[in-house]
Amino acid sequence: MVDFWGRSFGRKKAQGKAPENKRENASVNVELGVNGVGLTGVSTSLVNIKGDDALNVTAYKRALNVLSGSVARLPFRYMRQQGGIYVDYETNPFHYLLSVQPQKRMSAYDWKYQMVWRAFHDGDAYIWPRIVDGEVFELVLLNRGSCTFDEVNGMYHVTDEYNGVYGNFEEDQILHVYFNSKNGRRGVPMWQLGRRALSIIATGDNETLSRFGKGGTVRGLITNDKSGIRGLGEYQDEQLAKVASSTNNLFQNGENIVSLPGDVDFKQISQTSTDMQFLESRKFAILEISRLTGVPPIYLYDMAGSNYKMPEQADTAFLTQTLDGILLAIETEFRRKLISRSMCCKRIFNFDRKKIFSMDLLSMANYEGKMIQNGTYSINDVRRMENQPPVDGGDTIYLSTNNAVLGSSKLSGEKNNDDE
């Protein structure tokens, strides 16, 4: 057993009087039918995204699910060196904890899913190994917000009422998982890194909801009626603003037909179908979330410009550029704090990366076939991977040969002294 437990745990008013002729052309740009509209024509203010508010952005939530689910479905194994290779250490407590139930009321799948989800969304995930009789009894994933890290003193302060964990812990007593960091000591929440983009997307969603809820927005300019004789009845700036505000409220309240004072003229600004549906905003959302999280757009159901090769290319890019780094970060943290120096080359924590393609049967068949052809696997090796019983002669290693000397026995199938 690892000797882990022996270690210590109004803007300003314009100066001067405005010329008289300025009032003749006074107008107010107003957008009718959108909540929060000011008289300057600016629609709803930018949504301030913070914390779990980001989960209302569907593309962001989907990206978190992809990242967390991709890690959670991979077997996480504790292995020991035997005969020059690493094999599962099935009699060690870690085998049960990582494959079945790491802690009470949580399966291994949910535990891995929540660990990755929190490490991305909250910035940090904390795991406390609970020790009973000198052995690891549980790997407790601490509740959100229950643990803080003192970077200067290297101490973790835990107040987790849900899991019953309280106290101060040394740096090597808590497993600290994070993927985005500015200093290599603690993580930065994903939503914080993409706060501006998420705010723009959320603002566009609110705008879309408002427009479709009202059946479309009426926009226009309210100005003086210049068809008649200008004089004492002409509306001034302040009066126009009051009329604009009143008219805007009527449209917001669902009125379809409104009346305007005789000296006021309303000119509607037409809208396009693109403006109504905010299609460009939707495209922006998926691409920005893809850049932020490293999840390919096709995983977020953006099928624009897709072809038959894109899923395969996306799988490869996601595995090599995004997922592999996540898995390595988790493996390294577990090795660093749960395996002593003397055992670092004899024990490892390892994700089985082959399982990422386990549901792609054609890719798995091609992979297994090539491994048999180049002599890496035997037939029985592949059968064990597929949970099939071995067959007689299945342990023989074959090597596919494409090139041979003309007239050699390799082509004729006959034996000669050189083959023996």
Structure overview:
This protein is of the alpha+beta class. Helix content is 36%, strand content 16%. The protein has 13 helices and twelve strands. It has helices spanning 20-24, 58-72, 93-99, 108-121, 190-193, 195-213, 237-252, 273-277, 279-293, 310-338, 361-373, 379-385, 409-412; strands at residues 27-32, 76-82, 85-88, 125-132, 135-141, 147-150, 155-160, 165-170, 175-177, 218-224, 264-269, 347-351. The strands form four sheets. A three-stranded antiparallel sheet has the order 1-10-11, covered by helices on one side. Strands 3-2-12 form a three-stranded antiparallel sheet. The protein has a three-stranded antiparallel sheet with strand order 5-4-9. Strand 6 and strand 7 form a beta hairpin. Helix 2 (58-72) runs parallel beside helix 9 and helix 6 packs antiparallel against helix 9. The radius of gyration is 33 Å and the shape is flat. The relative contact order is 0.13.
| Quaternary state of the chains | single chain
Give unreliable regions as ranges.
Answer: 1-44
Largest β sheet strand count, sense and barrel closure: 3 strands, antiparallel
Mean pLDDT rating: 78
The count of strands amounts to 12
Roughly how many Å is the radius of gyration?
33 Å
Q: How many alpha or pi helices? A: 13
Overall SS class? alpha+beta
Helix content: 25-40%
Taking the alpha carbons of the first and last residues, their distance comes to 48 Å
Element-level helix/strand string: HEHEEHHEEEEEEHHEHEHHHEHHH
Please report which band the strand proportion falls in: under 5%, 5-15%, 15-25%, 25-35%, 35-45% or over 45%: 15-25%
Strand arrangement within the widest β-sheet reads 1-10-11
Name the overall outline. flat
